[in-house]
Structure formats: C-alpha cells, structure tokens
Amino acid sequence: AFASEVALKELLYWKTRYHDNLKDMIKSYNKGSRWEKNEKSNADAEKYYEEIQDRIRRLKESKIFDSQSSNDQELQKSANSNLDLDPIGNAMPQTLAKTETK
C-alpha cells in the first residue's frame, strides 16, 4: 500500500506539472524531467510510455474491470485520501492535496 501511495502522489505531481498531458506525465514518472534534455532518456521514456499504453489497452480489452465499474467512485475517494499522506517529506506541491468540502 505504501508504494502505491508514493506512486500515486508522484503521478499526481507530474499531472500538475504537465497540465494533464498523460504522455509527458508517464514519461516523467519513469525518467523525471531528464527526458526533456537528453535524447537517450527521451527514447527510454518513449519506450516506457508505449509499454504502459500497451498494458492499458490490454487491460481494457480484457474487460477485467467491468464488474468493478460501480466501485469507481469509492476507488477515487480512496486514492484522494492518500493525498493527505506525505511519506516523502512534503516534496510534492501542496496543491495536490485536495480536501472535500462536504
């Protein structure tokens, strides 16, 4: 659970930095921002992105999550609750930690 919380926080950080650009977000999750300045890092990050896209496509095709679609809202709440945790010492921008106003 801890590793997934850290991964989620990092992905959300890159999502904010790249204004929801999924490709840049995934490339940066893999290589940080090195891919922007280094041709080899960019090639590696592109390959990683393509592998992730392939996995996503295969998961969607398998329809393994169809029975889980009714739980999407609960999963999102659970993921959002992880934002309150900061296992890496406030390294991510505070704007990522959204609180519900209900």
UniProtKB/TrEMBL annotation:
Location of region: Disordered? 64-102
Q: Which domain of life is it from?
A: Bacteria
> Where is the sequence biased in composition, kind Polar residues?
65-83, 92-102
> What is the official name of this protein in its record?
Uncharacterized protein
Q: Which organism is it from?
A: Staphylococcus pseudintermedius
**What broad taxonomic lineage does this protein's source fall under?**
Bacteria, Bacillati, Bacillota, Bacilli, Bacillales
